[in-house]
Amino acid sequence: MPVVSDGAEEAVRYEVADGVATITIDRPARRNALSWAVVGELRACLARVRDDESVRVVVLTGAGDRAFCAGADLEGMVGGETLDLHRSRGELAALFQDLWSLGRPTIARVRGWCLAGGMGLALSCDLVVAAEDAVFGTPEVDVGLWPYMITVPLCRSMPPKRALELMMTGRRVDAAEADRIGFVHSVVPVDRLDEAVAELAATLAAKSPAVLGLGRDSFYRVWDLAAADALHLLHPALGVAAELDDAAEGVAAFLERRPPNWTGR
Description:
Blueprint: E1 12-17, E2 20-25, H1 36-50, E3 57-62, E4 67-69, H2 82-100, E5 106-110, E6 113-115, H3 117-123, E7 127-131, E8 135-137, H4 151-155, H5 160-169, E9 172-174, H6 175-181, E10 186-188, H7 193-205, H8 209-222, H9 227-242, H10 245-255
Parallel strand pairs: 2-3, 3-5, 4-6, 5-7, 6-8, 7-10
Antiparallel strand pairs: 1-2, 8-9
Helix pairs in contact: 1-2, 8-9
């Protein structure tokens, strides 16, 4: 079922098929720019994912062939009371946190412009599949702003000094350079983008949701920790995971040379 905001232009579509939830920012006329309403709709869609055990993987994308998301809608995200604006900006940070704590693998499907907050949104996903026509960048500095809110996803996705260079210069990065820097996980021809995303989503959906969910959670939980603190959390996590029914099934399937039958427990 589509989820549509109250605004005339804003829209976010939510669809589920074969265990894959596809969330689409549907504002092609505005290059899928983020408004406060769209940020709220995206968070609502992720809440639906949390409540739907049939969803194994999430794909986040933008409608049309011009943009994944060109960043903030500057016309719709300026003005108003200072405190209200401050709280609204916190919703973008909350959206990034929602993605990291979702418990399901997330894939950004990127075509065309992927700029500013849109780039932060894509890089907050676990994996980024980009078409050859994708263009990334943080152009905020060119309009007298700074990409404060996306600093964390950028620095988590590439060497920090590389992220700083992009933020200071505002220059655009094509898909080939994005691949060299390392913040996209694959670059494919435009006509193979949907196929490549579907193949990756199917691969992830075929894994044990319990194993993948616990493992992914542990990855994000220890990301910013010192090694000793991370190991302190990972040790008991391994003990819990080893007791899962799916762990026993995986070992048995391996020994019996057959495909595993995951139950998600």
